Amino acid sequence: MVDRRGRLELVWVNKDDRPLLEPRILLEEDSKSYPPGAASDNMLIFGDNLLALKALEQDFAGKVKCCFIDPPYNTGSAFTHYDDGMEHSIWLGLMRDRLELIRNLLSEDGSLWISIDDNEAHYLKVLCDEIFGRINFVANVVWQKRTSPDARLGLGGAHDHILVFAKDASKLKFRPILRSDKQTKGYRNPDNDPRGPWTSSDFTAQGYRPNQMYEIVTPGGARHKPQAGRCWKNIEPVFRQLVEDNRVYFGRDGKGVPRRKTFLSESEGIAAWSWWNNEDVGHNQEAKKESIVLFGAADAFATPKPERLIKRVLEIATDPGDLVLDSFAGSGTTGAVAHKMGRRWIMVELGEHCHTHILPRLRKVVDGSDVGGVTKTLGWTGGGAFRYFKLAPSLLQKDLFGRPVIAQDYDAAMLARAVCRIEGFTYAPSDIFHWQHGYSTESDFIYVTPKVLDAEELALLDEQVGRRQSLLVMCRAFRAHAGRFERLTVRKIPGHLLASCDWGRDDYSLPSARLAPEAAADY
Predict the structure, then answer these.
(1) pLDDT tens column, 13-71
(2) Which of 72, 76, 23 is nearest to 47 (CA)?
(3) What DSSP element (H or E) covers 262?
(4) How many alpha carbons fall within 13 Å on the CB side of residue 349?
(5) Spatial separation of the C-alpha atoms in residues 422 and 21, rounded to whole Å
(6) Residues of the chain with CATH 3.40.50.150
(7) Which residues form the DNA methylase N-4/N-6 domain (predicted)?
């Protein structure tokens, strides 16, 4: 379908149904952070990933350099840790909601990498085009995930896709990757150049440019002109400078077609391309072996990603110290590799394997006892820390009579944090004024209290706020005419909040729903 602006639009059943997400606060459990009490920017969040992304939005919008996600592929196959199959339209809607939040979290020069297979890859590409804009599509990386064909299919499936999108392609700058030993061996030094080993490349370019069509006379006396349809790569004065600096090779006899020399000592690496073979970045069997070493054969993850694959992504998309996000943490591979590479990380996982798999894995990384994956390659010996968080329960619940009330788990401080987040205020309690719990501007503040306020208390607040400031007062109830106070806006909890969120919903995860024949029209 084409929208009113002429853009291709993907349509599915109930596309316009969007959840009213409650922006939850995060609660740290120090006993699960590691080491306990350590300060760290690394965060492991236990809870629904859609709610967690919403919880991160206020503090981390525009700060994530790279997001790698490996969502359920919607193949209809049941997994131990995920039910990976649902109606196509449901899958698209749930992915859309998460991708929109991820885009908000990415920095202007950030990128998103999504691992997916053929079952949904092409629909997902169009969906991402809508959210990120087609102009911000970077590449479809094809990863050779197998070492042999899948005999069940007759035409063996050998690859997965990794869709790569930029927040803003004009600001994106990827890093060159390190050369492999195999690539380094291609460097030679047949002319004993003091700058060391080098490799050569074609000195011609496609096309016709009059000032790049000159004749070259080699040191051995041979004469060369560009072949039909091609020209030299540089104009003649630049070519002569390269010759003078011994950066052009004419073969052992000095009569060959000129080739440009590139020295290993001057190379930071090579540009990555979109075909990643398993020899360079690992494969499914390698990932499964890594999982068995970490967790034992009985508890190994069914569909992990090899650490070398994540390392390649982070080499290209990040620098040390950058923030990496994975909201489908699985067994924790992204965080483990990011930690070893000196990146900051945030991971989100709802399943109990957050505790049975991810926590022990990350502790091994911190201790330096994780000997698998890319540990040896990176020379990792341990260090750092991470903090464990869980999503706070929903702020509002119903009492025995079905009336909405503030959840009993919330004390005054939690209530203030939660309401600040819901109302869009930055939570920043003042040490001087008890009524300053947060701010939206330099002169607009919020005060949150579970108390019932009378006219005298409100009048005192109005006086303390002063003439050039304003205060939003959120309280359980008040006994006064709210309009009489010039600098106050007074609202009740929970009445004022009821319509703003879907209260009491803790799980927006991907459900298991097999596609029925009558749903085929959704495709």
Answers:
(1) 888 889 999 999 999 999 999 999 899 999 999 999 999 999 999 999 999 999 999 99
(2) 23
(3) strand 259-263
(4) 23
(5) 10
(6) 30-178+271-391
(7) 64-355
